[in-house]
Amino acid sequence: MALLIRGGRLIDPATGRDGRFDVLVEGGRVAAVAPDLSGRLPAEGDGVEVFDARGLVVTPGLIDVHTHLRVPGQAHKETLATGTAAAAAGGFTQVCTLPNTHPVIDSPWLVEAVLARAREDAVVRVHVVGALTKGQEGRELAPLDAMARAGAVAFSDDGRPVADAGVLRRAMEYARAIGLPILDHAEDPGLTGRGVMHEGPVSLALGLPGIPAASEVVAVQRDVTLAAFTGARLHVMHLSTAGAVEAVRRAKEAGAPVTAEVTPHHLALTVAEVERLRYDASTKVNPPLRDESDRQALVQGLRDGVIDLIATDHAPHSGDEKALPYVDAPFGISGLETAFALAYGALVESGALTLPELVRRMTAEPARALGLPGGSLREGDPADIAVFDVDAEWIVDPAAFRSKGKNTPLAGRRVRGRCVATFVAGRRVWGERP
Amino acid sequence: MDAWRGNPGSLLGLAGLAPAEIERLLDRAEAWLDAWRRGAVSPVLAGRSVALWFAEPSTRTRVSFEQAAALLGARPIVISERGSSLEKGETLADTAATLEAAGVDAIVVRHGASGAPEQIARAVRVPVLNAGDGTHEHPTQGLLDVLTIRQSFGRVAGLRVAIVGDVLHSRVARSTTWALAALGASVVLVGPPTLVPTELARALPAEVCHDLRAGLEGADVVMALRLQKERMVAAYLPSEAEYRARWGITAERLGWAKPGAVFLHPGPSNRGVEVETDVHDGPRSRVRDQVRNGVAVRMAALERALSGEEAARWRS
Ligand SMILES: [Zn+2]
Fold it and tell me: Is A324 within 8 Å of B204 when comparing Cβ atoms?
């Protein structure tokens, strides 16, 4: 079954294409990209699906290097089916699921098990990030080589950052030999303490324990220092502070093998949102929503290229968990389905970034940072494609999310930019038929 | 920050409460105090029931609310921390809805988590009174402090109040500061930077001072806060002895304040730590008045929440 996506504005930063192109898909791969492929259109009846993309934007499928699919063990929060359906609805065709699960993904068997389940249940491509230390306890190294051979694409103790710098150093040295990157949750546990939101006037007035900006800055400085020292590839996740952007900037200038990401919610929201929603734990996220000056530094860091890419940190939780008192509720925002619109508003509508730049930060850059296939639509590439209506205005309604996680502070917010179709290997996984 | 005020009659915090509303609560408390002294409290809340939901234990506040409810003729129903359905995994909203369905006319809630009363108030239609939530607010305690101060000076506007101690973790300090500032007093928060962060001056309508002498200078009121032992363990302070040496209120140091300055403490006190006994029990102490005023303030708060006529007036 061939597929012709016709007449859309193709934005493929990996090839530099930006213009009106037809995309022909055969055998699950991109067969041809040209301004007009109507001549190559197979005769009707030969099983050709034509997708009319006039007025729409066609991009490589988005890639999220930071997704919590909650597998294994937390099916009440998300499953491979719901999580990848949410990914597809957001325009993502590849996601990397993080290992802070129950149990922690810290063995080759668990990596294999998640990948096997994904082949059954997932509608987009799923990659597995293995734990860096056993049980993410920050003491003994997890079997990094065995997990890599089982298919892990990176290692991370996300959610439980390695407190002992000596352990992190050895983990980096070992990971370097394996050649896979470490996804770094940069946070100093001592400075965070029992903090639940950005430390500052709002936390002091609400009487909620704060997480100082220094908790992230100190950790990023430590971690990039160790990356430079060991030569390990370090990808710093979810930057939230101006100080951390500065630390990454200096590390990159010094030639350290570092990449960095920022989430749509940190680009679009600040602690003012916590103040507005008060004790509604939908704003509780780690790292927390920070000050406007931090938000601006993140946008600028993305513009400068200090921050390489956008990742969602999609963290679904059940409604009951988020209904707990703010201090007790879990951290996290369900982000896959609002990622593009939120980033589009914060970056493109605001004039900070061009649309092709935004697309690059959600396709080619994440592929490059983690060494993943895809993120481009060259002839011969897998036909992982997203189609967006960037003019479509819509109101975020968590009840309509495909994700089990309805936890978002964006409920009722008017946003612009919506994914109307997603294809994985040329097969439609999201969107109405034309 | 404009606080959500909750259902009519609720008292979730003093932040954002209009000065006239605070004055009216103080006036009603004064009137109840007078009636109480004369043994002439009319049971305006007869036939009503009030849930006293104490998810965090506090004998003082609970007894004060119980007494206030009983004096007004309302039936207090105490739900203690132990055996509350919260432990069985029920959410705040579920428990609150159960209480409402059982027919209580108001819910007084004390909770270890900041914001819990607000979350409860969003789940029910009956008024919710915050009896202390985490490190957020303790509005009736704040009102009784302000009432005590008003009684001592006949006014609040223009006074200078020094609040000394662990402001970071004190819901009392927050409520008292909001109310004092609303009524035109100036507040200075005094203590070590670990317990009185400089940024508090951007969070509350108050100054911050890390020098006790400078902080007490010119103060009409000195209020010491309870110092908890956990603060030493969590490295906010080296020791109680060090705290006492630098921040403890002694008779000599009270002399740094204005002549005629009064001393307040929300209790329970650590004598010999944040305050010396001769100050705590001395002629300038208003600690006993605070306790008595606490009952009157809670009568005013319950009346505001429940009495048909009063509630209607508040609601209009
Ligand atoms: Zn993380």
Answer: no
Query: A384 near A424, Cβ under 8 Å?
Result: yes
The predicted structure's pLDDT at residue B82: 58
Work out the minimum CA distance from A221 to partner chain B, whole angstroms: 24
Q: At what angle do helices B139-153 and B59-71 cross, to 10 degrees?
A: 70
Chain B residues whose beta carbon lies within 8 Å of the beta carbon of residue A192? none
Task: Kindly report the number of other CB atoms within 10 A of residue B40's CB atom.
Answer: 8
- Measure in Å the smallest separation between the Cα of A127 and chain B Cα atoms: 35
- pLDDT tens-digit map of B44-66: 999 999 999 999 888 899 999 99
Residue of A nearest to B120 (CA): A325
What is the 3 state secondary structure string of chain A? CEEEEEEEEEEECCCCEEEEEEEEEECCEEEEEECCCHHHCCCCCCCEEEEECCCCEEEECEEEEEECCCCCCCCCCCCHHHHHHHHHHCCEEEEEECCCCCCCCCCHHHHHHHHHHHHHHCCCEEEEEECCEHHHCCCCECCHHHHHHHCCCEEECCCCCCCCHHHHHHHHHHHHHHCCCEEECCCCHHHHCCCCEECCHHHHHHCCCEECHHHHHHHHHHHHHHHHHHCCCEEECCCCCHHHHHHHHHHHHCCCCEEEEECHHHHHCCHHHHHHHCCCHHHCCCCCCCCHHHHHHHHHHHHHCCCCEECCCECCCCHHHHCCCCCCCCCCECCCCCHHHHHHHHHHHCCCCCHHHHHHHHCHHHHHHHCCCCCCCCCCCECCEEEEEEEEEEECCHHHCCCCCCCCCCCCCEEEEEEEEEEECCEEEECCCC
Structure tokens at B248: 């403890």
Question: From residue A274, how far is each of A270, A291, A414 by CA, in Å?
Answer: 7, 11, 18
In the 8-state DSSP scheme, what is residue B161?
E
pLDDT at res. B308: 63
Nearest CA in chain A to B197: A204
- Of A215, A255, A203, nearest in space to A233 by CA: A255
Q: In this predicted structure, what is the pLDDT of residue B313? A: 55
What CA–CA distance (Å, rounded) separates B104 from B117? 16
CA distance A189 to chain B (A): 14
Q: Which two tokens stand for residue B102?
A: 């059982």
Residues of chain A positioned with their CB less than 8 A from the CB of B16? none
Taking CB atoms and an 8 Å limit, are B135 and A207 in contact across chains? Answer: yes
Contact yes or no for B119 and A325 at CB 8 A: yes
Q: What is the ipTM of this complex?
A: 0.93
Q: Do the chains contact at B113 and A201, CB–CB below 8 Å?
A: no
- Which tokens hold the place of B136? 């957020």
The rounded distance, in Å, linking the Cα atoms of B13 and A142 is 49
Cβ distance of A204 and B91 shorter than 8 Å: no
Q: Which residues of B are catalytic?
A: 60-61, 88, 110, 138
Tell me the chain B residues in contact with residue A325 when contact means C-beta distances shorter than 8 Å. Answer: 92, 111, 113-116, 119, 134
As a whole number of angstroms, the distance between CA A387 and CA A431 comes to: 9
Rounded distance from Cα A80 to ligand 1 centre (Å)? 20
User: Residue A320: which of B91, B118, B199 has the nearest Cβ?
Assistant: B91
Residues paired with B309 in a beta bridge:
none
Distance (Å) from the C-alpha of residue B207 to the closest C-alpha of chain A?
13
Residue range A215-259, pLDDT digits in tens:
999 999 999 999 999 999 999 999 999 999 999 999 999 999 999
> What number of residues does chain B have?
316
> CB of B239 within 8 A of CB of B255?
no
Instruction: Tell me whether residues B4 and A275 touch, CB distance under 8 A.
Output: no
Q: What are phi and psi of A247, to 5 degrees?
A: -65, -40
